[in-house]
Amino acid sequence: MRQRQKISAALAASAATAAAAAATMAMGSPPPAAVMPPAIGAPPSGPCALRGIRDNVSESATTPAGYARSYGTVKALTLFIDFPDARATITPRARFAEFFPAATDFFRASSYGRLSYRPTPLLRWIHMARPLSAYGITRGAAFDPVGDTGYYALSREIVRAVDGSVDFRRYDVINVLAAPNAGPAATHTVLSVTFSGGDMGLRTADGVSFRNASFIWSRQAGESAFRVLNHENAHSFGLPDLYYTNDRGAPTLVGHWDPMDEDWGPSNDFLGWHKWKLGWLAADQVHCAQRGGAAAEHTLSPAATPGGTKIVVIPTGARNALVAEARTRGPLDPAVCRPGVLVYRVAAGVPTGHGPLRVVDATPHSRGCFTTDKYVDAGLTDATFRPGATYTDRESGVSVTVLDERPDGTYRVRISPARA
What we know:
Layout lengths: L8 H17 L46 E11 L9 H6 L4 H9 L4 E13 L22 H13 L10 E6 L14 E3 L17 E4 L10 H10 L35 H6 L8 E3 L7 E5 L10 E5 L4 E8 L12 E8 L9 E3 L30 E3 L6 E7 L5 E6 L4
Parallel strand pairs: 1-2, 1-3, 3-5, 6-8
Antiparallel strand pairs: 4-5, 7-14, 8-9, 9-10, 10-11, 12-13, 13-14
């Protein structure tokens, strides 16, 4: 059967035009990452690559098939929708510029240049046939092929509107940007959501599944508001939510140490475990302190600095580990007010939104040190361990001692692995 050429010259031109516009309009974009040496990242492997939940996003070191690749070149189709009761009051180009090139630059910097994120916008508003309320889009709305509401109905209409001009086979992820006046403000209800992984029951004319799709609603509050898109796309890459999804009033487990918990307010970088899971670290940047091994010293290079050892993984069970990494203030971490070594627990068997990762607080009774931004949970901002401090996990026998901070900004730590 003859295949249609679906990417038109107009669409390609619109991508170039939008990129140029975004370069002049986007605010708060992190600086491009420094040029990296030939070393490349690699998917996790070895005895410290924890196995866990495979049918959903999780902290399992390896991500199942069906999710988008997260290193190398990732192509993102960006579509724009509005509704009869919420017609867009800005141009698609202006909406695009709220996220790009800032989101692209963030991924480039956080991955040390190992993720080249390339968004292609279809610069026209896709006018949905019914009012927003008719689709039943609320927080927690499902992608259910049964019925005529929810994200399936919305996506089916979107696909039908663009199938003649878009070749979905060319893209790894899909971003649907709703007109910012559609739905409640993000400060009232956060509707942005991602449907990722396996086949969701909707196929395009190209024969591919409509999946790894992020729907971005309203506008996120605070600085670096574009990062809601980085957060949502990271679900398509296999990362879980680190906050309690069913109880936003529950205690914060990670805070501003990773965008999968807090993606509002000032910028914050991904945790080293996530960078390893995403394939952004080379094999020699991850040290594995296996159970029953001898105590050893390690030198940790801060997340803000390309190169060097980024994490030490200390397994405490078949699906659990402690991880140590260095965090200092940098372009992606302006809120770091207590540089030092961050220690956290990874549980690959705990579902997304139920606490799969928890930061160990070095100062559990303090109010934190970054207290000037209402969008940052201050309590964990001083969670890092400083030179001379030791953390001991009584259950596993693991201990992490921060020996010193070197003039080059690295931290020397001594780690005793878990008992055999």
